[in-house]
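agent> Task received from the user: take the single chain below, predict its 3D structure, and emit structure tokens. No templates, no multimer pairing.
agent> Plan: (1) validate residues, (2) run structure prediction, (3) serialize to tokens, (4) report one or two observations.
agent> Step 1 OK, no nonstandard residues flagged.
tool_call: predict_structure(input=
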Amino acid sequence: MRSRSRRRPVYNVARVDAQETIRHMREGLIFLRRTSYFAFLIAPLVLAAGISVAQSQPPPPRATDRNTQQQKQSTGAKAEPATDLRGTEQSPVIVKIQPTPQTDEEAAKEKNKERRQSTSERWTFVLAVATVCVGFMQVLMIGVQSWIADRQNKIMKTQSTIMTDQKAAASEQAGYMRDGLAATKIAADAAKAGADTATTALNIANRPRLVIRQVVTDGFSESGNIRSQLTNGYISVTNIGVFDATLEWFYTNWLFVQKLPMENLALSAEGNPINALLHPAAFVALPLPNLTVSVSEFLSINNAVDGAAMGLTSQPEGSLFLVGYIKYRDSIALRRIHFAYRYDASLHYFVAVEHPSYSYED
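)
tool_result: status=success, residues=362
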């Protein structure tokens, strides 16, 4: 597993920087709102000041006033003394063209025209002052926006650094998670393997085990002599294991020989299918095939029985054997138990034969 240093403080720094970013943005919005309020308040004051300055300027002289002054000058000239020196060297004649006096209607029109011109000039001045004020406020707002944009750029750089650190922390945490998942998978696989091994060991230790308790058949007298035919025979099979066993195949055969052959012919023999579920401590009776006893078999077996009854130990010509197998399935695999039994002339029943080719389980 890879070793990595923990970087938990990164998450604390990211949280503090995020709070600082939110605080700066909130302050910028508050400053913009207050600045806009200031602009809306000062604009009417500047406009009113411009109007007042425009109204305080004296209006230009009107044409009617000029006519009145010219009339006064002409009247003053007429009031001079009677001595008339005009046309002499002392007072040469000067011709001066006087404007034609205006009528009342022309004077009124001129007066209205001058009034409109004066009003237009005042409003032009006011608009110029207002434009200057608005331009100043725009410059101020542009400066404020530039300052806010600079702050936002710094905040975005800080956020980028935070996000980079968070990405690195997330990548590191993902590595921890991958390592943890890998370790968890290894532990889970080990636990599963251990559980499977324990289950297998438990199944092996407590698997079903079949034993043949007895071999029973009709055809023997009370003294142990055999008759001409064996019928209604069966073997009793018991499960002495812990788990259930399912019986699937069963095979048996009668042999009359002095000793069992080296090769067990039951290995290549096909049995009869059965389907019997055998619980622990339960038993089942499996039927045996009938046997017609030949004359030589009849004489050999009965002579051995009579000789044993008289205490003689003669070697019989042969013995009667029962050989076969049982196939059954447990929770692990399919198994087969082989068995061999011989009729004992002195005991008058079948006894198990211990033989490596006939008495074993696989």
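agent> Step 4: summary for the user.
Residues 1-5, 74-80 have pLDDT under 50 and may be disordered.
agent> Done.
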